[in-house]
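Reply to dn_fold:

You asked what the input looked like. This is it:
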Amino acid sequence: MADWSARDWSGQNWQEWSEQDWQEWSERDWSSSSWQKKAADGDKQAAVSGQQDSSKGDSKGQDPQDQDKKPGAGTKNDWSHKKRQLNFFHTKDMDALKLEHKQQMTELQQRHDEVLKQKQKDLDTIDQAFRDYAYDYAKTRCQLDILLDRETEHQGEIEELENHLTEAYEENRELKSSLATTQSEMKELKNKIAEHEEQSKQHEENKQLKEFLAKAESEKKELKEKAADYEEQIKKLNGQMAETNGENIRKRKQVAALMDQVTEVNEFIVGYHKKHHLEKFTRPSQERIAATLEPVPKKTKVLAARSLERPAVDCTPQKMQ
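and this is what came back:
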């Protein structure tokens, strides 16, 4: 099949088309045009590059808008501008194609009407011919009835009339054949009109799909903006949690140091009382003596030591998942 996208039909008249041109036009696959493939490839490439830039920005912990600024390349706004240009040119080509299709349909309808008028005129001519033939036949029949009595005298005239009758039958068969051919051509024209209407419906469906794609792209952009806001909030929360962990570690160290000091003071007091035999002067109660002599629980020291060795909690999105 010929490449219709590479052919220039602007200077040609549809009345000059051959049967092969009409067949190629009717069998053309409008859903796989070159501009649709280019538009789909451009959308796919823009989506892939946007996803790669977004993934790079997330891995480094930077703003995705800063990651989009590459040397020698544009930003996402440039990609969106190019995409809008592509959609504009695509819509422009579609409108031009629709206008051309509408003009061709109008011309085809005019041609169809002219053919119908011509065929109707031919049918009227055929009908008038049949009427004339019937009149001539009736007239001839009457003449034959009159001449039957003089058959022997006018044998030559009878043979001539029979020849005329045979020719009339031949013309009748030719007219019937022409009528059948005309009906076949009308049927083919109706089929072509139905095919063109089906192609027009497919163009409308493609337009609806494109509108749905534009709506999905808008929703995707809004979701990306929300994701960027959430990532910024997560970064702030991670900073606050890191500060809180540092403050908790510092306080645990202070508590452990104070516990060690309390233990040393208690041991010093007990040793001092034993060394100078001051228990009888102070006369502490049994509970105070037991509380003074009781060392700091080993479990408390172990917990304090473990709190010092505990690492800070990492609240990055990767670790939290």
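Residues 54-73, 300-321 have pLDDT under 50 and may be disordered.
Hope that clears it up.
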